[in-house]
Amino acid sequence: MAYLTQPDYVKYICSCGQLKPITNLYFCRHCLKIRCGFCICHEVDSHYCANCLENMPSSEARLKKNRCSSCFDCPSCFHTLSTRATIAQPRQDPAAGDAKIENKQPKKMYYLSCFNCRWTSRDVGIPDQPVASGGWPERTNPFAVRVNQLLEYYKAIAQQEKQEKLDRERKKFAIRGKYLTLTDKTGLTGAMARNIAGLPSSESSSSAIANFVPSQASAEVEELPEDYHTQEVNLKQITSMAQRLRAPDSQPRLAARLHPAARALSVKRSQRCRACDHNLTKPEYNPGSVKFKIELLAL
Ligand SMILES: [Zn+2]
Ligand SMILES: [Zn+2]
Ligand SMILES: [Zn+2]
Ligand SMILES: [Zn+2]
After folding, report:
1. Vertex 41 angle, CA 37 and 43, to 5°
2. With pLDDT > 70 as the criterion, what percentage of the chain qualifies?
3. Residue 106 carries which DSSP code?
4. pLDDT > 70? residue 200
5. Number of the ligand closest to the Cα of 47
6. Is the pLDDT of residue 214 over 70?
7. φ and ψ at residue 116, rounded to 5 degrees
8. What are the φ and ψ backbone dihedral angles of 264, each rounded to 5 degrees?
9. Distance 40 CA to ligand 1 centre (A)
């Protein structure tokens, strides 16, 4: 039996000439050939969270920026964070008498904790939450406005290029005296058709391009603080490069600024034979009931 973690001492020649261990090989039943990851097509089938196994279609995943909304990774060691419950004692109010306190039940509160490195959401001052799932405060990207501007600008450029290509093609056909596009047949103008289809008009995209302010390089930078080179470094308070790059939007320098990172979604791929277009493996939509298709394994 071959395991995915097995060291690849024995390699087999794939039909494309690559040497691969048996765990990386597929067998196409239709061409009766061995195929490897190099000579098949990889297609994204669906997105899912590897922690809570929640499935979502690609459109929803894009909307959520390919992150799970209920699972978080430790910003310190990148292990998955667990939700822990505590009992919060009702705070004693000196103005109210003892009688009032008796009515208050101790409340269950939740915080995030890492079982690997003992980091907790309390370390960075995130308040405990009354519900176990979700509701964790999100840190907004300080450059969100600029990022959205850039996105809009590139979308407008793409739209404009598409339109130019369409116009060029139409001209080509108009010269030959043929009307091939729907808009020419029905007498609709391009702007009307876009309006009906709910696409942004070319005017709005051209205004987005006109109003765009490009970034300017500047030679002036802020001076470093005076004690920058003499100050003693406390490595416990400073984040590592990996920790900083894990949160590319904020890139926290201090450990006190770390924030739980929403878990990135994984994809399920289906593999297709490049020669005959048949599926080699297809993932199950529901990850809870994965039945590995044994007959499709080269083994
Ligand atoms: Zn191959
Ligand atoms: Zn999840
Ligand atoms: Zn951790
Ligand atoms: Zn094939």
Report:
1. 110
2. 77
3. P
4. no
5. 2
6. yes
7. -90, -50
8. -70, 140
9. 7
